[in-house]
Amino acid sequence: MTPDGNRREAAGHPACSFQFSDLATDIIKMLDKLFILGTGVLAEECFALASHAGIHVAAFIENMDRAKSGTRRCDRPILWVDDMPQRAKCICALSTSTRSRFIDQVSDRAEFVNLVHPSSIVLPGSTLGRGAIISAGVIVASNTAIGDFVFVNRAARLGHHTQIGKFATIQPGANIAGLINIGESTLVGMGSIIIERLTIGRESIIAAGAVVICDVPDNVMVAGNPAVVKKTGIVPR
Question: Residue range 51-69: average pLDDT?
């Protein structure tokens, strides 16, 4: 992802000479000062990811509890949202629904960038949307498109030619096969498995450990092996 918000192709170098470290190094150089939207435990996790990658975190940004302004987290200041610098380079460390609201609130002032941990692998032909976060130990196969503001958590696996809709969350250890289409704001739970060539609807939840062998509609929760619909009318958290 470039600073102007354009999509960043992981295969920025010829396939024969591509090294993931080139992508990670470019991102680290770009993020001289990173601001993290949010002050909860996920913000701490993103702080740890950035710090381990050699990226300096300048501050956390709060938009709900003004009493937190002026305090510190992880030895960094917490700023009220109105005090965030213009054109600050940001990532958003919040759950799905609050993530989208906070991003909308600061969209005229923030430059959303990618955070990709150097231990992860993004193969040639894959792209990262604006503000996407790739945690430690993730493998993204070739020709996969990760949408804006997607969070891919530790050790997840994304198969080739897969599409991940914006604001989706992929939890630790999830294994998503190739040629999958995952809808906007969907949560794929820890350790779940999705077999190839399926469509997963928007704003749905794949429960932890679920084994998905057929398409999943919008706004449902599926669980079990094989996964079946357990709840309908799901609203993103």
Answer: 94
On average, the pLDDT of the chain sits at 88
List the domain boundaries for the chain.
Answer: 32-112, 116-232
Per-position DSSP letters for 64-78, written without gaps between them: S-GGGTT-EETTEEE
Cα(181)–Cα(178) distance, rounded to whole angstroms? 9
* Cβ count near 17 (within 10 Å): 7
Vertex 170: Cα angle to 45 and 149 (nearest 5) = 75
Residue 119's identity, in one-letter code, is S
Instruction: Of 3, 92, 5, 80, give the one whose Cα is nearest residue 40.
Output: 92
Residues with Cβ within 8 Å of 135's Cβ and at least 6 positions away in sequence, in order, are 45, 49, 117, 120, 151, 152, 153, 154, 156, 172
Q: What is the mean pLDDT of residues 41-66?
A: 95
Asked whether residue 28 carries a pLDDT value surpassing 80, the answer given is no
From the options 3.30.420.10, 2.160.10.10, 3.30.390.30, 3.40.50.360, give the CATH code of 116-232: 2.160.10.10
CA–CA distance, 80 with 166 (Å, rounded to integer): 26
Give the closest residue to 89 by CA, choosing from 133, 57, 117: 57
| CATH code that applies to domain 32-112 | 3.40.50.720
Q: Which residue stretches of the chain are H helix?
A: 20-30, 41-52, 96-106
Write down the residue that tokens 């130990």 correspond to.
137
For 217, other C-beta atoms within 10 Å of its C-beta total 14
At position 53, the amino acid (one-letter code) is: A
Q: Say what the pLDDT of residue 97 is.
A: 75
Rounded CA separation 141/133 (Å) = 16
